[in-house]
């Protein structure tokens, strides 16, 4: 007589812990704590997230447990171990999902964190633990990620992990407001994991995964604008703004080629120590006023013609620091009173960042781009305050 047995779920239940953050299988015992964490920022109001509203919390967990029984998801509660005097505190959730045991594939997603823990080391730690367990313990051949086309922060975070953008599934999944989103797909192969792991480990060791929204210091060995030289040219050309940035900014190779044919172009590497982390190109009308008049550029300003930060370096304040260093340059030029820049008005554009820095739209257009401006004096005051 043969007795039927229930196949062991893959991946099996596991608890992962590192540097004060623990991932433990999600259960109904976490219901109240999930509701509390979600209320930190009322995260359910973000339309493209999976965060449950208070009355949906039990159903949210029951769905995760049902999907676990079906073999397609393993959900975790994210715990800050040291919080509450060592008693621990649930601060979010994440999952392995769309699990395909036959080809050793998992995806990482359903991820959210309480607002007070966002832009911290928590996401890097969680992703590192899940990726390491998947590749090194489960023997996965590939890990996947997916993000709403509207969730640009999530796309940038996935790209910083070292994942490759596979493409976009159009009109793919409903969201809570009744609309249908496009889904941006990413993946990482097992052969790509060692290099990605090294970068993530270095990021944690350097403490650079902690981003509290303050600008990087632009003094000493922090951010400076350096000449493009034979020694750093290749590194500058390799800088990549990520899939989102590529839609809005010319390549650095093209910008440097343009600079070779404009006496008013001032191309610079954005440097942290001896490492290029981005590229900026200014338009300085004071260098050749006749050319500026021909280009129909307003006198009395320095223009930020191009600005990009490598996708692995985004979220660290380098863009703001570079603009402040551009203001420092402008202050050395005769009769300069303002800094101008512009942006392409498509989804994911940097206008919220520029407005946060104090730039305002002028109502003018530069081709298809919207022009913004800020008095040099205001930027210099901000630079002084950042010291």
Give the oligomeric state: single chain
Number of domains: 2
Order of helices and strands: EEHHEEEHEHEEHEHHHEEHEHEHEEH
How large is the share of residues in beta strands? Answer: 25-35%
CATH level 1 class label of the largest domain: Alpha Beta
- Briefly note the CATH topology name of the largest domain: Aminopeptidase
Main β-sheet description: 8 strands, mixed
Query: What is the average of the pLDDT values?
Result: 88
| Order of the strands making up the biggest sheet | 1-2-3-4-5-6-8-7
What would you give as the CATH superfamily of the largest domain?
Gcn5-related N-acetyltransferase (GNAT)
Radius of gyration: 24 Å
CATH architecture grouping of the largest domain = 3-Layer(aba) Sandwich
Structural class: alpha+beta
Write down the overall geometry: elongated
The total strand number stands at: 15
Contiguous low-pLDDT stretches (5 residues minimum) are 1-5, 208-221
Total number of helices: 12
Which key terms come to mind for this protein?
alpha+beta; Aminopeptidase; 8-stranded mixed sheet; 15 strands; 30% helix; elongated; disordered N terminus
């Amino acid at each position: 007589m043969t007795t039927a047995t229930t196949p062991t779920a893959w991946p099996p239940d596991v608890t992962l812990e590192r540097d004060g953050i623990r991932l433990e299988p999600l259960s109904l015992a976490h219901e109240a704590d999930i509701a509390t964490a979600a209320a930190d920022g009322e995260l359910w109001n973000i339309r493209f997230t999976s965060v449950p509203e208070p009355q949906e919390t039990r159903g949210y967990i029951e769905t995760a447990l049902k999907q676990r029984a079906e073999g397609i998801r393993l959900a975790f509660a994210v715990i800050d171990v040291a919080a509450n005097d060592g008693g621990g505190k649930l601060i979010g959730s994440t999952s392995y999902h769309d699990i395909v045991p036959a080809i050793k594939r998992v995806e990482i997603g359903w991820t959210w964190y309480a607002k007070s823990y966002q832009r911290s080391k928590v996401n890097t730690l969680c992703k590192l633990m899940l990726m390491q367990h998947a590749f090194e313990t489960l023997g996965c051949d590939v890990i996947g990620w997916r993000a709403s086309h509207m969730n640009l922060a999530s796309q940038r975070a996935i790209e910083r992990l070292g994942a490759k953008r596979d493409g976009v599934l159009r009109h793919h999944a409903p969201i809570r407001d009744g609309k249908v989103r496009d889904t941006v797909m990413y993946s990482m192969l097992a052969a790509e994991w060692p290099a990605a792991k090294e970068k993530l480990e270095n990021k944690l060791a350097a403490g650079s995964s902690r981003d509290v929204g303050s600008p990087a210091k632009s003094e000493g060995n922090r951010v400076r604008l350096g000449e493009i030289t034979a020694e750093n040219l290749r590194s500058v050309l390799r800088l990549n703004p990520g899939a989102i940035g590529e839609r809005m900014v010319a390549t650095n190779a093209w910008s440097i080629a343009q600079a070779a044919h404009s006496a008013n172009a001032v191309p610079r590497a954005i440097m942290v120590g001896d490492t290029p982390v981005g590229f900026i190109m200014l338009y300085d009308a004071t260098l050749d006023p006749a050319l500026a008049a021909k280009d129909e550029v307003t006198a009395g300003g320095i223009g930020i013609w191009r600005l990009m930060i490598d996708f692995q370096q985004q979220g660290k304040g380098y863009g703001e620091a570079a603009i402040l260093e551009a203001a420092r340059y402008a202050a050395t030029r005769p009769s300069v009173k303002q800094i101008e820049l512009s942006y392409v008005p498509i989804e994911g554009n940097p206008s919220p960042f520029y407005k946060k820095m104090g730039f305002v739209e002028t109502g003018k257009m530069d081709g298809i781009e919207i022009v913004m401006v800020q008095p040099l004096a205001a930027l210099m005051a901000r630079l002084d305050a950042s010291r």
